[in-house]
Design goal:
28% of the residues lie in helices and 25% in strands. By secondary structure, it is of the alpha/beta class. β7 and β8 form a beta hairpin. α4 packs across α5.
């Protein structure tokens, strides 16, 4: 979570719906201008609900326990003790890790594939052709103040929206995909394992100039928390 973007976004508590935005209560881990782990808190005296920031992604949901049970996370996530304690109280089952990697590989290939021959697990359009057609829709010949990408996945379209707006917000419900997008923004680098038939993996790695004016958020698109004006919505 880029600190500059956080200062420009107001998030509403899904529990009490108070007009006051969530506050950054604690920061446990940072890297440069990015907050990797921390806690957000509702400032309303009758609420005080907390929401975690994990791997640079704020997770703002009304029913955290339900999301946790159905998430693709395994074990107790977090690199710092306070955040591990936060997740330790949530009940979860351990999902199949192999399915998790296959899904991430498919989305990364679709968003960032370099057009090289590949055999993804799921049929996707050749990435190069797909983005050549889609990216011009971001600009539409003008600049915008805010942009929203609903279902942003691993963030390629959100990054392209950011090149034509002051701030782009990428929202999704799948943590692994959002975390991959946030890492690309922090590291300016794309790195993933291309999944081939027979469940073999081929490393893909290259530099990528991701813009800083992107705010990724795990939240429900049918119950959004961002109160900024939205001028562009992803055509997906």
């Amino acid at each position: 979570m880029h600190t500059g973007c956080w200062e420009r976004v107001t998030l509403i508590c899904p529990h009490c719906r108070a007009d006051q935005g969530l506050v950054l209560e604690q920061v446990f881990d940072t890297r440069g201008d990015f907050i990797l782990e921390g806690l957000l808190r509702c400032p309303a005296a009758t609420c005080q609900a907390q929401y975690p920031i994990l791997d640079g992604i704020p997770i703002v949901l009304k029913d955290m326990s339900r999301w946790w049970r159905h998430s693709s996370l395994t074990g107790t996530p977090g690199n710092t003790a306070p955040l591990r304690e936060y997740f330790a109280v949530l009940d979860t089952a351990d999902p199949a890790r192999q399915d998790r990697y296959r899904l991430l590989s498919t989305y990364m290939e679709a968003h960032y594939g370099t057009g090289q021959p590949a055999e993804p697990i799921l049929p996707v359009l050749q990435a190069a052709d797909y983005w050549e057609q889609l990216i011009p829709l971001c600009a539409a010949g003008q600049s915008y103040q805010y942009a929203l990408d609903l279902g942003c996945s691993v963030g390629r379209y959100t990054f392209e929206l950011a090149r034509h707006s002051e701030l782009a917000i990428g929202l999704d419900m799948k943590f692994d995909l959002l975390a991959a997008a946030a890492r690309i923004q922090r590291e300016q680098h794309v790195r993933y394992q291309r999944t081939l038939r027979g469940q073999t993996f081929t490393p893909v790695e290259f530099s990528y100039a991701a813009p800083p004016n992107v705010f990724f958020l795990l939240a429900d698109a049918l119950d959004p928390r961002c109160r900024q004006p939205v001028l562009i919505v992803s055509p997906r």
